[in-house]
Amino acid sequence: MVLARSIVTPLFVLLTLTLTTVTPQFCTTTTTRTPSTTTAATTTTTTTTTTTTTYTAITPNLLTCPDSDIATTTTLPAFKICLRPALENDFISNIIKGSGIWEPINTARIVNLFTLQKSSTTIDPKKKFVVDIGAHLGWYTLLAASHGFSVVAFEPLRAQRERLQASVLLNGFEHLVTIMPYAVSNKVGFSTMWTGVLDTPQGSNYNTGGSWIRPKGWTTHEASVHAQVSEIGIQTVLLDHALNLLNIADDIFLLKADIEGHLGLALSEGEQTTKRAKFLFLEITPRIEALNGCDTDRMLGHLFQQGFRMCYPPHCMGKACGANDIILGVPETCLLDGLPYVGEKKTEDNYSSEWMYEDVLLAQGPFGKR
Length: 370
Hints:
The chain has 370 residues and is α/β, with parallel strands linked by helices. The protein is built from ten helices and 17 strands. The strands form four sheets. It has an eight-stranded mixed sheet with strand order 8-7-6-13-14-17-15-16. The chain has a four-stranded mixed sheet with strand order 9-12-10-11. Strands 1-3-2 form a three-stranded antiparallel sheet.
């Protein structure tokens, strides 16, 4: 067990690892594991890589959050979160500031996981890790820390990461949260991320949560439609490699990933991590995954073979569901037979938006037991 590092002090990790893994075959995109300073031997399914990489948790520049940007949540326990400045009219920040909560149903389901875990064992929750891929402003990172869990949060965009860093300090969560300034992908190197705009009947406002690594399958037309704000250079890492370098050998209680259709590429280099995870909470965007060369059904089928099953709140099976339908302390119902399945097959003809998604909870083994 390694305690989460304070984000106030720079973290420098320099290790040499030899990785021998069988890459899951649900993405056809060629995996690149070669940083500019390393060499690697690559085959179709098995790769042995000797990599010397320095990962740094950067000292935050924004150590305090302006009072006007701080919101107190309506969760139990409550925490404070540093939002985007009001003048930006950020979609997510506006919702949190107005209601005190983000994604009420998802938040209720995850709080229920934390509640069940803490009630079923005397193990200190900080000995269990939550991995937050695509942390953004840190709603789920801060939610987990408020329940006492240790968190490793991946957020490549500095503008969001600094707000998260300020929130961690604001709540005194430095001993629980480690922030990694990278995007998780299928290669070590550099890429470009777009930031997004949300069009509403009231006009356009920023949707900083709609930031994504451009799928290679997009056409020039799609690129022109969606690149409405800016392109930002980011650094990418492999999930297994990054967590190994942090020496996190403990069980991972929950892995949450919300990365705008880049999930297949991220998990293709996260086999060790998912095997150690009890729960996966994943945003699935089938068409964007396909543009990245990844097959959603094959990806979920692979997780099924690992032992994961798709789970639903018992009061939400086959009907619309609200946050009030999530009863704390009641385990979700997990499908024991058949492959996980996300919606209908979507094509250009019947698919109104390539951003249509479904959030799914997958459990490995008996629900709530580890």
